[in-house]
Amino acid sequence: MPKGGENMDLTPQQVNTICKGDLEIAGYFHMLLVHNRQAVKIEKLEKRVHELERQLGQNSNNSSKPPSSDGYQKPNPKSLRGQSGKKSGGQPGHKAHWLKVNDHPDHVITHAVQSCGKCHCDLSDVKSLPEEKRQVFNIIVKMETTEHRIQTKICSNPNCQHRNQSAYPEGVAHKTQYGSPTQALFSYLHVQQLLPLNRITEMVHALTGHAISEGAIVHANQELYAKLATEEAKIKAHLIQAPVLHSDESGVRSKGKLHWLHTACTPLFTFYMIHAKRGREAMDEAGLLPIYQGTNMHDGLKAYDGYTCNQALCNEHHHRELNAVVENDNQQWAGQMIDLLYEIKKNKEELIRAGYETMAPEDRAAFEDRYRAILKSGLAENPLPPPPAEKKRGRVKQSKTKNLLDRLNTNRNAALAFMHDFRVPFTNNEAERAIRMIKNQQKVSGSFRSIEGAQSFSRIRGFVSTLRKQGLPVLDMLRQVFEGKPVISEPTTTSS
User: Fold this and answer.
1) Which of 110, 126, 264, 380 lies 20 to 30 A from 97 at CA?
2) CA 80 to chain centre
3) What would the pLDDT profile of 384-428 be if each residue is shown by its tens digit?
4) Which stretch of DSSP H or E encloses residue 261?
5) Residue 16: which domain range?
6) Is 215 exposed, middle or buried (0-12, 13-18, 19+ CB in 10 A)?
7) pTM for the full predicted model
8) Beta bridge partners of residue 272, listed in sequence order
9) Is 189 part of any domain?
């Protein structure tokens, strides 16, 4: 009798031939075929229902979906980081901030006592006791105009009569133009504060009474983009020398089409690039991974595997996927894997606090043995699916749980890279934070109007992110770039 999943569409003549003309046996055979077809169909429907339930059960705690996608049915707050044991609020050593008294106020107003409040005696000539004071702070914004004039003089020597003319300062090239501090402010508001062009024009007019055009802001960004080419090259040179690199990518829309924002970053430097492709072509064009020799941490995109650098996978993503296995499939091995990963993480942090730079070989081996044992249990619970009745091209479709198990098994060195090299963090949060800003930009301002605008935004934003990571004053540094001054230092033999 054919096995489940094989072709059951036998003709009555074939059934009669198999049953040798016995009608009773033929009727029973037909009944078995019907039940078999129903069983196969029920199995397929059950798998489909389970997959749909799994999709409906996805949220920010058990998938890569952002918290904003949870809607009104938000899951109960559940931090993936666990309990830190610290009290909420400012921690010991946190620097407090308050409005300090200005020892050199711009304006002083003395509120004099003219007469006695009781007997009305004139006190205008009476010397006051030590004065009390309170200060009120206000931001005063105005558009200031500086006019540059050049002179022309004819030499007074009768034998010379040369026409002499002074020169405008460098950068003063047009009859009217915005100065570098104002251009820096335009780019700062647009790229760092993510204000749309029309809101910047509204804000400037409300504060100063001066009407600016959106084109002035676009022109400032274009000029800054060109001036930042050298600074971006220095940022990339620092990243290439970093022992650990964080990489990620996210979709953005430019001129109505899907493009991809790629980032490569460290705690001190950030690089962004907009490209029409997500994978290897874009990564090659960025020019980092083809020559990078450190450890590249990412979220598991296959395109990263083709490079010669070491690989590290984000365990925050693994945690969310393992949560989904626990919640949707009720498989205990996933909870055991979560506990093991965080046990290794805690052990590593304790060793770092104690001054160690690596884990003892026997401890690493013990953790690896437990890792393999958990995977073995998970693989036994999720065997390979049966081959399809009809041969098809490509891989046999597997469940998400089986795909996760295969990834954790095949890439175990990348998943445990944080244990083998203490410089490698547990998660790829550095790149996640770098990518998050493009999502905020898309929510506030929508898609980019042109690919040139997207490229300009990405280069400026990478520079601004680098400044913020290094604690440098963003607005002042942007002004220096407009004035042609270098900001980022040249890399040395080592960097981070």
Assistant:
1) 110
2) 18
3) 877 766 676 767 778 889 999 999 999 999 999 999 999 999 999
4) strand 257-265
5) 12-47
6) exposed
7) 0.79
8) 263
9) no
